[in-house]
Fold this sequence. Notes:
The protein is mainly α. The protein has seven helices and no strands. The two termini are about 70 Å apart.
Amino acid sequence: LEIICLVFRGMARNEHFVGVDAFLSPFNRWLDKNSNRWVKYVETFVDVDELEVVLEAETYMEHVSAREKVIQLSYNDGVFLHYVLEKYISDIATDEKDPIGILVREMGTVKDVAKRIDPSWEYDDTRFPRIDFER
């Protein structure tokens, strides 16, 4: 097995056997004669497409950048998010010109929005979990 490994090493490096490996010198003529075949054979292993091509990275990036950024929320998620924003808006938007603060003030309270959507809705502050932020 050691001799086979030495021959493969010589083939891979495309080097003649000299010095310590001189006893393998009869393979030198074979290497010279078949080096083109060997190089073509090895090229089949190393001739691979670039990773970006294989993974279609450009197509993916075009798709991601062209897509609209959308978050889908259920009605309950929206109400809860509104509730949290309304309750902690002074901690979230400290500047009067902060867009999220302006949006929450323009929307009104959770109770007002819910009543506009469903007049029979009863506001119950205890339905929402308590969130304690460290201040």
